[in-house]
Amino acid sequence: MQRFHEKVVIVTGAGSGMGEATARRFSEEGANVVLVDYHAENVNRVAAELPPERTMVQVVDVSQSFAVNAMVSMTVAKFGKLDVIVNNAGVHEAGEPTEISDERWQKVMDTDAGGVFFGCRAAIPHLEKTRGVIINTASVSGTGGDWGMSPYNAAKGAVVNLTRALALDLGKKGIRVNSVCPSLTRTGMTEEMLKDEALIAKFKERIPLGRICEPEEVAAVIAFLASDDASFITGANIAVDGGVSASNGQPAQG
């Protein structure tokens, strides 16, 4: 299936986890893919396994608006256009609210919320020309609260409502805006958590499907939302959570 033949797609946080799986999925479906990550070693490892003529790497800190602007400009300079941006890069800080320093709070907000906004803003003029698509990675942690995760919850909640707001603003420009809201997913961010068998067993009890999510499952939903198969979907925050939202259970980090 080549739904993205000759399309140009930016994926941030493409050096691992959901971003890596998403970049691979778009490449498999024929896209020219720009892999963006803060960690050069990680993103270059992924890029080395993709077709070089359709792959571009950019090492970017998405919390810096000037860097995001340059990222989008360099993408268009190389490929001539932009069809899809997937704002996926994120960081995580956990702890009791009184333990969260100003610096830790700001780091999460600048990256997880600010980075998404900067990516959307920089992409809009180019997506208007192609009637393109924005996909943001939010989380079920942005639709309900978790214990000990207040900065992450706040940032992902911002992404959820930003997605709705941008869909209203950009629909008239022909740009669709959606987000995915994963639950507990096997990524680098959750690597240490997944080693705690007792904790994971408790998470699984709250997930109706009884297991954690794989990054390829999130990538599949992102690809669907970016495709013409989802041509009348905008402003949606799609739960990829094994039924957590339906059960009204405690959100599990995505």
Automatic annotation (TrEMBL):
SUPFAM superfamilies linked to this entry: NAD(P)-binding Rossmann-fold domains
UniProt entry tagged with the keyword Oxidoreductase: yes
EC number from the UniProt entry: 1.1.1.-, 1.1.1.304, 1.1.1.76
Domain Ketoreductase: 7-183
Keywords: NAD, Oxidoreductase
Organism superkingdom: Bacteria
Family to which the UniProt record says this protein belongs: Belongs to the short-chain dehydrogenases/reductases (SDR) family.
UniProt name for this protein: Meso-butanediol dehydrogenase/(S,S)-butanediol dehydrogenase/diacetyl reductase
Taxonomic source organism: Rhizobium leucaenae
